[in-house]
Amino acid sequence: MKRTCILALLVALVGLMPLAAASNTVTIYTMSGPEITTPILDALRAKYPSININLVKAGTGEIVARLQAEKHNPAADILWGGDNLAVFDGNSDLFAAYDSPEDNFMVSKDPNRKWHAFTIFCQAILVNTNLVKPADYPKNAKDLLNPAWKKAGGVALADPNKSGTGYTIVSGLSSAFGWDFIEKLVQNSVVLPGSDQMFKAVKDGELPVGFINEDLGATWKAQGLPIEVIYAKDAVTVQMDACGLVKNGPNPELAKKVLDFLCSKEAHTIAVKVINRRSARNDVAPPAGLPDLGNLRLFTATEPREVVNAKFTKIYGK
Amino acid sequence: MKFDRMHRFKDPWKFFTLIMFLVLTVLTVVSQIWILKTSVQEKGGAFTLRTGQANQPVEIESETLSGFTVRKDAPSVMTLLRAGRDFFSIDASVPDQIILNSSAITFGEPALNEDGKLTIPYRVGSGAPARKSGTSSLQIEQKVFGTLFQSSAGQTLKFERLSSGGLRIYHAPRAYLNVRDTSVRFGLGNYIGFFTSSKYLHAVLNSLIIALTATAVAGVLGTMLAYLYARYKMPMTSAVISLVTMASVSPPFLGAYAWRMLLGSSGIITRHLGLNWTIMGMHGVVWVIIWLIFPVVFLLSYDSFVSIDNSMRECSYSLGADRRRTLFRVELPLAVPGIVTGLYMALMTAFTDFGTPYIISLDLGTLPVLIYKEFMSEVGGDYSIASTGSVVMVLISSAILMAQRLYLARRSYASIKTQQPSARMPSAGKKVGIETFAVVLIAMAFVPHLTVLVTSFFKWEAGILSTTPTWENFTRLFNLNLNSIWVTLTTGSAATFLTFAAGIGVAYVIVKKRYPFFGQALNILVMVPYIIPGTVLAIGFILIFNQPPLLLTGTWLILVLAYFVRKLPYAVKSAESALYRIHPALEEAARSLGASPAKSFWDVTFPLIIGGVISGATLSFLQIMTEISATIMLYRPPWKPMTAVIFENTIDAGADFGVASAMTVLLMVMLYVPLYFITTKTRKPKETSIEVL
Q1: Which of A42, B263, B426, B593 could form an SS bridge with B430, CB 3.0 to 4.6 Å?
Q2: pLDDT tens-digit profile of B84-94?
Q3: Count of domains observed in chain B
Q4: For the whole model, what pTM was predicted?
Q5: Which chain A residues are within 8 Å of B544, Cβ to Cβ?
Q6: Nearest-CA residue of chain B relative to A215?
């Protein structure tokens, strides 16, 4: 027994020895799945064979909580993905400012230079075709106020207090139609604690109608799922995700190189091809099959999180 | 007494208790103290100022106002009050600037940080301005929303000090100004907020309803099955025990989702039977949790039933009691330590389960879900209310723990002799009945496992199962880096070894030693991590282990430690219920014959409790190897366990579940094969005497 204990202690001590912190390692935190990270990182490795990438994946909430907890001695160099307003502006103390040469090619750049645009995506209306007849498909966002939806279960709506996509939808639609509209929408909705919950509720037929990020909607439609993706004529909300350097990350110089690559035309072209996302770069064409942004009445978040959250909480109840 | 004093320094248990107390204190109390601290910190107050569109007065967005009240003095001029007294005033009558003035507080020198936030230290009262920043300050942050994606540049605030002692702040046109008082007061405000919020009270109620209903049903099913298998000599008893043990873990992540795939509105079964039904909702949550927790009730009560001394039964019969009376008056009471401990573990699992209500309902608020979503909010959650909720949860759970402990400690179930298990031969009809009952229960518990197994051989498209059979999931799996298998095995075994060793010791101290303070303290310390969600526990670990000298983040050791404290309760509780059945006289006999405390433990007590301990250790092992919530907060490549691989292949709504289901199958096989050998080897059906009655 004693011998086993000593042995275990020795093994533990060996484990404690710091892994020789390789100076060619860059740690990336991301909430994206392997379907997008794998091809882009393969391209990165082909270009910079000497760089070793450590990838840590978790949900957006867990990643933000982890970055917050680690901020006195960060393990991550880069956060890749996450809403530019909710995640990056909302936690700006976690990120370092950096002038990426690629920023000049983007449709938008952060005045504080903390986030660097990655992709743009609209929230379309998602309908489950098993539950809704084509004649009843909503054409406008305002059609979602029809009490018939509540009788059929309700509109799937992500809580803006819990989800960046929910924040974009609520703030975008309130800027289009005012908070009265949101009040009526909430009465007609089932408020879900996350955007994934919202997408899946309609996909799995638990609720007849909701919202979806257009890239995922297009992918699902192409796979033949019983869904329809509809761009409302009166208002479509739109958001952006981004990447950024973690403040005081272990390997800042190399991280800049990697970040520049994530923002490069090459990486964005892969993203467009693989996940159907619109690139935030001016020089990368949008994916085939998505409507031209110029033909949509676009609305984006126009009030800060604090305001949207507080107003929504007042409507939805404490 | 004299005897005791003589042995005070020879009693290795005291040393062990002290070490465990220190280790657990660091791992559970020190690492989690931030929750308690946050829960009694009241925020200073905050509001958002909407500055003008042309000709519109500047206003405070009333919904955002907290910690202050506001009085409007003129259009665009307002005074913020705290506790009914003027605090400071804002004059925004000139466009694109605001003037802060106060007679109640003195502003210090403002500082602009690189995020564009303006920090203004202040001191209550007049006189020398506050110099030290970080104590009390007003923090002002500007947000400007331009047209689509065109954030306006130059969002930095400018300021100048006025001779009056006030401050003039220049902001961008049409900006939102978030103003936050960073001062912190300690008080019970968060608790008042918690208990006056119908959302949180409902969540507490929902959690209790779910936990109690599921535990009641699982308790009846689990004890019934355990009793039948303990009382009757049934074929394949050890197989049943192995299977139930295996069913005690659900495949991580995909397990609960399997029920939704089968029985949701458009689930596979629902569609084929043309039902208008869905499992989503509280009824479904209870249903799924029942099958998750009945194994632990079964395993712990089975050990208790088997070890009932048959002479007790014989006494009862000879005194004229019939079988029913004997069951309720003799057998059940004698098995109480196991049953109560099993029910307690089941109740705690049901009460703290986050995944099931999150997946098997759309918007059902339960306490773990609300706490989790506040802590893990991607848009800035409310840590105060989440911490308060966690403390409330710990308090409720501690109350249940104390009740369980008082109940068990007041009674004595101990037996002085170790008996040969005895059982009756069932009649042919009874045998079939019991077997059917067992098959139904086990089949239900294995629905998620079987679903995942079947689905791993089909093609997945965008998270949807197709009907095309394929080997591709597995071939893709083996093309991945299989390093994670090794990581899971090593960290899992190390943690299991630790829980095994520490579990016996802690249970022994709790039950037999009953040291005045440390015994109770250990008992509670062990259970704390069982109650705190894994991700939240992991935040605490990062907070204390992310800096030298205890720089453990990113190593495998932090995973082992997290697994160890999270799953220790299984080992402790099983050993505890076994120990309650052993009379102290046995060990005292050994001691009086001159055996040292250690020797008397090893030679007398240990062999008697090994069955209970092993079932606890196997439960820990299964739980450790499938642990996911702390893992995703703590892992860092190359130390990346299999559960992290499963998780990353399921996190996106558009993710392909194929690799995840194949990896889950591999993980289950890795768990079940050793488990099978352990259970069949250690649970060798003992010589069972057959009762003739």
Answers
A1: B426
A2: 888 899 998 88
A3: 3
A4: 0.86
A5: none
A6: B654
